Amino acid sequence: MSTPAPFGRMLTAMVTPFNKDGSIDWNGVETIADHLVKTGHDGIVVNGTTGEAPTTKSSEKEEIIKVVKRTVGSSIKVVSGAGDNETDYSINQAKRSEAAGADGILVVTPYYNKPPQAGIKAHFLAMANATGLPMMLYDIPGRTGVEIESDTIVELFEHPSIVALKDAKGNVAATSWVIKRCGIPVYSGDDILNLPLLSVGAVGFVSVCGHTVGSDLKAMLNAWFEGNSARALELHQKLLPVFTGTFRTQGAIMTKAALTLMGLPGGHTRLPLVDATDAQIAQLREDLRAGGVAI
């Protein structure tokens, strides 16, 4: 692999398991982090969308980093989401993440206020200058309302602390051109596009489905980088029902339900998310079994 993978190849954006009363299930945090390590992960992303970061306090985010770091050990990268739609607040989150022991930060495009590209660039540069941590940009216009345009990504990659891009743009052509232009290490942020993005030069995944099929996703990565594209395609096609089922509604909702079906402490959600219904769980069970998950 010519392009380095600064955080390893296989990462999953981890859920935050909540008790019924809304408190964090700290034993559950440890159990899920350990499960991810045992299924082949090189790193774990905490305090992201799947971790329901918009509903957790800064103090909770810090403690999540500490608990996961303590659980997984020094060989597993722990990357913490630190992005918000207000730059000073985001910088504060980044500094607190660094103090808590994170190995890197994931910074999403400022959302809702839809800044122009000049504002997006200034935001990311301010974040990159705020700590000594390596930073992964996160491009997900379906959630933020605005993309990081290709020229902006290329320019931002000139900063030494900006080392990777989590790509959930859903535009493989645009991502292909960005990789060709500047060589930024790209992580797929959309499970169903994992293999297509590998084919244009991505270095790995920041998955959601890694909670349930992490071993298969790691096998897909290994097959691809060993030159066995046929095996990688076979695994991709096997996992299509899981990719689809996990996102029939919001990903954290279904992932928590899936973990519970697997006998793991997925826990509950915090409003405005709501737990999966019985009908949604029944469909999810079918999707997971169709993808080879033993439940």
UniProtKB/TrEMBL annotation:
Keyword Zinc-finger assigned: no
Catalytic function, reaction form: L-aspartate 4-semialdehyde + pyruvate = (2S,4S)-4-hydroxy-2,3,4,5-tetrahydrodipicolinate + H2O + H(+)
Record's signal peptide: none
CDD domains to which the protein is assigned, alphabetical: DHDPS
InterPro entries (alphabetical): Aldolase_TIM, DapA, DapA-like, Schiff_base-form_aldolases_AS, Schiff_base-form_aldolases_CS
GO MF terms, alphabetically ordered: 4-hydroxy-tetrahydrodipicolinate synthase activity
EC main group: lyase
UniProt cross-references to Pfam families, sorted A to Z: DHDPS (PF00701)
Keyword annotations from UniProtKB, A to Z: Amino-acid biosynthesis, Cytoplasm, Diaminopimelate biosynthesis, Lyase, Lysine biosynthesis, Schiff base
Function description: Catalyzes the condensation of (S)-aspartate-beta-semialdehyde [(S)-ASA] and pyruvate to 4-hydroxy-tetrahydrodipicolinate (HTPA).
Name of protein: 4-hydroxy-tetrahydrodipicolinate synthase
Organism name: freshwater metagenome
